[in-house]
Amino acid sequence: MDIIQTTDEKELLRRLQEGNEFAFKALYEIYAPRLTMKLLQLLRSEELAEDILQDLFIKIWEVRHSINPELSFGALVFKMAANLSKNVYRRSVYDQLMRKQINADGSHNPIEESLNQSEAKELLYAALNKLTPRQREVYTMHKIDGLSYQEISSRLNISASAINHHIQEANKQLRNILRSNYIYLFAVLVPVFFEK
């Protein structure tokens, strides 16, 4: 096991480029607290802030080979956080406009909406069943049950980077499976899962 004993950011970034999980974890631990505070300021939602932070570091891991150690990593992650927050805001505004449009048309039908939600849930669960058992378990615990990485780690006895990997892979597969139904699912399922 290669334990990092340096806090030099350039060295951490070089090791990250090589796929070193300890460097990834060290960078996460350095930046996550400040990023969380910034995301909470922007989004005013702990759940959204946590999701965006996770998505941001998944993206960092995916593009680790192209990160330039000579440039400011802090500037990069804060820019990414701002962009991801803007995307969430745009999506939220779009959803609100779509709901208003549906209601303005007078075509709001609670029975039809309930059926659509049932269909969407079935589609989601069918997609979840196509994941590996571990991916499905980790994804469900985090995204649906709302457990933190730490809670999942203690329950399943796996590392945060393993959790990250399972969620990243599950997200990729779900995106591919649900791509054709994405707008439909997003419009129908987001309200369902946030009603809890």
TrEMBL record:
Domain RNA polymerase sigma-70 region: 27-91
GO BP term (any one): DNA-templated transcription initiation
SUPFAM superfamilies: Sigma2 domain of RNA polymerase sigma factors (SSF88946), Sigma3 and sigma4 domains of RNA polymerase sigma factors (SSF88659)
Chain ranges passing through the membrane: 177-194
Gene3D superfamilies documented for this protein: 1.10.1740.10, Winged helix-like DNA-binding domain superfamily/Winged helix DNA-binding domain
Keyword Transcription regulation among record annotations: yes
Molecular-function annotations in GO: DNA binding; sigma factor activity
InterPro entries (UniProt xref): RNA_pol_sigma-70-like (IPR039425), RNA_pol_sigma-70_dom (IPR014284), RNA_pol_sigma70_r2 (IPR007627), RNA_pol_sigma70_r4_t2 (IPR013249), RNA_pol_sigma_r2 (IPR013325), RNA_pol_sigma_r3/r4-like (IPR013324), WH-like_DNA-bd_sf (IPR036388)
Keywords per UniProt: Membrane, Sigma factor, Transcription, Transcription regulation, Transmembrane, Transmembrane helix
Start and end residues of each RNA polymerase sigma factor 70 region 4 type domain: 122-174
Keyword ATP-binding belongs to the record: no
NCBIfam families xrefs: sigma70-ECF
Family indicated by similarity: Belongs to the sigma-70 factor family. ECF subfamily.
Protein known as: RNA polymerase sigma-70 factor, ECF subfamily
Source species of the chain: Chitinophaga ginsengisegetis
